[in-house]
Amino acid sequence: MVVNFKVFKKCSPNNMITLYMNRRDFVDSITQVEPIDGIVVLDDDYVRQNRKIFVQLVCNFRYGREDDEMIGLRFQKELTLVSQQVCPPQKQDIQLTKMQERLLKKLGSNAYPFVMQMPPSSPASVVLQQKASDESQPCGVQYFVKIFTGDSDCDRSHRRSTINLGIRKVQYAPTKEGIQPCTVVRKDFLLSPGELELEVTLDKQLYHHGEKISVNICVRNNSNKVVKKVKAMVQQGVDVVLFQNGQFRNTIAFMETSEGCPLNPGSSLQKVMYLVPTLVANCDRAGIADARDAFGIIVSYAVKVKLFLGALGGELCAELPFILMHPKPSRKAQLEAEGSIEA
């Protein structure tokens, strides 16, 4: 039986250092994160010169537009989370993967393995979508494996002898279902007997991207007001943790209807509205997050239902948080996705 493996390869501009990795997505399962492993291959000249080679895990957090930067002001932080010397090798026990063992046999004596453990408190990879015309670096959290040569890991690296390979820390939807979301809100009116009651229920707590969300709505009008229209929407909340006022919301799917309206006093209404939030439907809008996470960007989702009562009656709103995530893909689909990451 022949087993094929996909390996990612990147060389430094001077072709003296080569990096091999068999994956670029590393899964965060909350309790632990998959280790980052790879192989560094050096040119014979670097080996003879006994050059020191370092590997680092770098987190790049951009929290503002590149076009708005001025001299001395940058909306970007670059953090080195892990740093270790690869060559000459240090005395440490490395548990090699099967892929590393095969590559070491194939690549020869100039190949050096490494394993790095990503800090569990580090944020997930998140990128805020830009407008199609915007070619600047997007806001978000990005990770790189950096390989360079120097006298110490604090030395300033030179571009020609440096490799930066983009990787991602990803989270996938859990297999266990949570509690079914449900909420009831009521509103009374000045000089008016009775209340207007709105009950909203979702059929489950966890949804996958592209899945239809069923919003069950029950309205009981015990007031003397008239409900003119019903609107349901899915909102994405984005919290840039570095800023006190760095929270904003985007409506990524909505539906409104007057069916069953006007809802007169003493009447009730039951309705199911279906919403399908997708990135494709919001591809021309800026500020939409492309993943979920605490020093970085926290992404949350909620269903919001509004009852419109006219100019004098105002509105009645109910909100239900839920989880929207990607399911864990097959190994083949995961490799295809990793191949599309920008190097």
TrEMBL record:
Residues 192-329 form the Arrestin C-terminal-like domain. SMART domains: Arrestin_C. InterPro entries: Arrestin (IPR000698), Arrestin-like_C (IPR014752), Arrestin-like_N (IPR011021), Arrestin_C-like (IPR011022), Arrestin_CS (IPR017864), Arrestin_N (IPR014753), Ig_E-set (IPR014756). The keyword Protein biosynthesis does not apply. Pfam families: Arrestin_C (PF02752), Arrestin_N (PF00339). Keywords: Sensory transduction. Belongs to the arrestin family. PANTHER family: ARRESTIN (PTHR11792), PHOSRESTIN-2 (PTHR11792:SF16). This is Arrestin C-terminal-like domain-containing protein. It comes from Drosophila gunungcola. The lineage of its organism: Eukaryota, Metazoa, Ecdysozoa, Arthropoda, Hexapoda.
